[in-house]
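Sanity check. The docking grid for copper (II) ion depends on where the pocket ends up, so I'm generating a full predicted complex first rather than guessing from homology. Inputs follow.
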Amino acid sequence: MLGWFSLVLVAVIMLWLYAIRRSPGATSEARARQVQKRWIIWGGLVLPITSMAVILAFGIPAGHRMLPLPLDEGEVLRINVTAHQWWWEVYYPESDITLKDELHIPAGVPLDLHLTSADVIHSFWVPRLGGKLDMLPGRTNVLRLHADEPGTYRGQCAEFCGTQHAHMKFTVTAHSPEDYQTWLRQEASDE
Ligand SMILES: [Cu+2]
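Predicted complex below; grid placement will be based on this.
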């Protein structure tokens, strides 16, 4: 996105400089109208239609993967996340594990995060895992997430929720499937 929008910015600045510097010259009215028409067709129709088509071609499948649709593989791992001012309560209904400000997930498989809030509106966001979803009091939103590789990913509340909003962080640790099972057993025996 940074690369693409830098390109757009440079192009706009160059057009702007060109518009400032070019000499008024004597163009006939017919010629001016022709140039205007060309700008409308190429800049106002062709450019936005093609760029939106390209963005949608990538965006629709990506958005589809974030929807909690039923999968052929069967049940998807479920984790409940409740936002509080200013911390995250993480609960694993299948194994009765509760965590604070951290999530542990298996890498390589999709999982469903059931997101809600205990007080004001917050937003769940792990930039490297994509997808950001609001957490609303009295309502549960489901976000499907998928970590391709084991690792640690940082998350942050993405909706201003009070004075400590900026410090409302959490970490997501994605384990290999075997490590995840080991972690589950450890946690279950600690409880
Ligand atoms: Cu917040």
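Relevant for the grid: The chain has two domains: 28-65, 77-190.
Also worth noting: The CA atoms of residues 84 and 118 lie 6 Å apart.
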